[in-house]
Amino acid sequence: MIQRIVTELGPWAWWVLGIVLLILEVLMPGVFLVWIGIAAVVTGALSLLLWEAGFWTWHVQWLVFAALSLASLFIGRRIVSTRLASDQPHLNQRGQSLIGRTATLEQPIAEGRGRIRLDDTMWSVEGPDLPIGARVRVTASNGRDLTVELV
User: Which of 7, 27, 124, 148 is most buried, by the most CB atoms less than 10 A from its CB?
Assistant: First the structure.
């Protein structure tokens, strides 16, 4: 079946596959199919040049397509990962963004645990035993609790 499709459409089979993959990327974005679609288009371009060559069988075309797909995935991943760096590295890590801030204890730290209010949120804190009203600085966050020290 694959041989028949490739024979009937010729090098354009790869162009059709590439365009279908690029359209699918638009419909369900995830920055994955675009690299495979590019590999299919490049394979189609090579097929236009090499179609009459005796070694350019559909088996070789699929191997070239697979190699180009892997290469484009690795190159694309590298390109995307360098461009996705945020100017706000703690955007979805609220606890990490609080490090360095100061607050007043709302509940005393007893046996290493207490509470502070930062902005509109009450946070559980860990640190040395301190009385209510003491000024503390956030030094670390483990996601749920903040670690504080006396200012």
Answer: 148
Q: What is the pLDDT of residues 73-124, one digit of tens each?
A: 999 888 877 766 666 666 677 778 889 999 999 999 999 999 999 888 899 9
Nearest in space to 106 (alpha carbons), one of 93, 89, 94, 124 = 124
Give the global pTM. 0.53
Residue 145, classed as helix, strand or coil, is strand
How far apart are the C-alpha atoms of 120 and 110, rounded to whole Å?
Answer: 23
How many DSSP H helices and E strands does the chain contain? Answer: 5, 5
81 burial via Cβ count (<10 Å: 0-12, 13-18, 19+): exposed
Distances (CA, A) of 101 to 71, 129, 132, 139, 151: 46, 19, 18, 8, 10
Structure tokens at 138: 């956030």
Helical ranges in the chain per DSSP H = 2-9, 12-27, 33-50, 58-83, 94-97
Single-letter amino acid, residue 57: T
Which tokens in the block code for residue 32?
């994955």
